[in-house]
Design brief:
Blueprint: H1 9-17, E1 20-21, H2 22-31, H3 53-56, H4 59-74, E2 81-86, H5 92-101, H6 106-111, E3 112-117, H7 128-131, E4 136-143, E5 152-157, E6 160-169, E7 172-178, H8 183-191, E8 201-204, H9 207-218, E9 219-228, E10 230-231, H10 233-236, E11 247-250, E12 253-255, E13 266-268, E14 271-272, H11 273-282, E15 286-287, E16 291-292, H12 293-300, H13 302-308, H14 316-328, E17 339-345, H15 353-356, H16 360-366
Parallel strand pairs: 2-3, 2-4, 4-9, 10-14
Antiparallel strand pairs: 1-6, 5-6, 5-8, 6-7, 9-17, 11-12, 11-13, 15-17, 16-17
Helix pairs in contact: 4-5, 9-11
Length: 403
């Protein structure tokens, strides 16, 4: 039970309905135009309670740009290659992809039509069809988008799948169990071949269905790159996660209480990538082997950029801080463990170096391309901590780990 923050939209919704699903609570807590976390007038946007890979170092965007160029080539060098980034947030990814594209094939750079979508821009993740009324040739990319989709919470109670609802008691928020608000919740677990244990809690995002359908509707031919923290269903719903994966983030600190600081903390859960894959198949998206971010960036040549720091005309401090930030992108139990799922539509036998690696020609090319270096709008990792890490220690960035 959590004390009531005064006059938040959540309480008015509960007063109107008696109880609401957790998905409705989360929608209001995060996205209410009046007092949601992402719209709170007393906060910066995007929120600074956490940082993302594009904010850590421009190498992330540079290597994604290189991968996009290869995808453009696979699609036959179209005169317009449209990239739609959903959940653009701070804008770092788009800014530095476009910047690094200036160093790549001029025809690719000229063809690149980069569109950023974010709810703060008056758009939502479901606005794809408005932005692209005609089907595109290109790529739809998201980085830490799906984990922010509102999700339902369910619990196996006395052998029956129950839903967790949010209501109030004596002015404070409490949870109550009830029958499922939608049969789709049970069908999702059945499709994932998941049997929850007695007492086990799980999060289910039904928004994945409409999102995948919209992505497929917009894409004539091309790719989808999804980067987020999550797992396949056999890992996501196993008995080691009896309480689910719900996490809240405020001021670079994680907690598991969504009912404190309503409107002033982020609420997320791990992404069910099995669902993304299976729904994608229904709508014509072919999925490739899921990898983690560390593997993606190493396959695309991150180590080449790291080694080049030793030979650039930089001060020792510049070398250290850039190396630190590059290493953070592949940190175990942090950004490096984020999952990467690449899907395609109407593409035959694509070459995707981010998945396969072993591209000697690309690594030789990276030796000659400009080396991305930190700029003033990137995060200072010596003063920040990534909250999704499994450890509370900051020791990972010590100089002993800079090699």
């Amino acid at each position: 039970m959590t004390e009531k923050p005064e006059q938040h939209t959540v309480f008015r919704r509960i007063a109107d309905k008696g109880k609401i699903t957790f998905a409705e609570f989360m929608e209001s807590a995060l996205y209410s135009p009046l007092d949601g976390y992402y719209f709170n007038s007393g906060r910066d946007y995007p929120p600074t309670d956490y940082f993302t890979s594009p904010m850590a170092h421009p190498t992330f965007a540079a290597l994604i740009a290189v991968q996009l160029e290869e995808m453009w080539t696979t699609l036959g060098n179209p005169s317009q290659f449209t990239v739609i980034e959903q959940g653009a947030g701070s804008g770092h990814l788009g800014k530095y992809i476009r910047q690094y594209a200036n160093n790549l094939d001029p025809s690719f750079n000229n063809s690149l039509n980069y569109i950023e979508l974010d709810r703060s821009f008056g758009a939502s993740s479901l606005d794809l069809n408005e932005v692209a009324p005609n089907k595109i040739i290109g790529c739809i990319i998201s980085n830490e988008l799906l984990d922010a989709f509102p999700f339902h919470r369910v619990k196996m109670e006395k052998g029956q799948l129950q839903e967790i609802y949010v209501t109030t008691l004596n002015g404070s928020i409490v949870e109550v169990l009830g029958s499922l608000s939608q049969i789709a919740l049970q069908l999702r677990l059945q499709n994932d071949r998941v049997d929850l244990k007695e007492g086990q809690i799980a999060e289910i995002s039904l928004n994945l269905d409409s999102w995948v359908q919209d992505v497929s509707n917009v894409l004539e031919s091309g790719f989808v790159i999804t980067i987020d923290y999550g797992s396949l269903s056999d890992q996501l719903y196993n008995c080691s996660k009896m309480n689910g994966t719900l996490q809240c983030y405020s001021q670079h600190t994680a907690n598991a209480d969504p009912y404190q600081q309503i409107g002033n903390q982020d609420i997320t859960a791990h992404v069910d990538f099995s669902a993304v894959i299976s729904i994608g198949k229904q709508f014509g998206l072919a999925s490739y082997e899921m990898i983690n971010q560390r593997t993606l960036l190493d396959n695309l040549g991150l180590q080449v950029f790291i080694k080049r720091l030793n030979y650039e005309n930089l001060s020792q401090q510049q070398r250290d801080i850039n190396r630190l930030a590059m290493l953070a992108l592949t940190r175990p139990d942090g950004l490096g463990d984020f999952k990467v799922l690449i899907q395609s539509k109407n593409v035959t036998k694509p070459k995707i170096t981010g998945l396969t690696g072993n591209n000697v020609q690309l690594k030789n090319r990276l030796l000659k391309l400009p080396l991305p270096l930190l700029e003033q709008d990137h995060i200072n990792l010596l003063e920040s901590r990534y909250p999704h890490a499994h450890s509370d220690s900051n020791d990972w960035w010590s100089y002993d780990n800079i090699s």
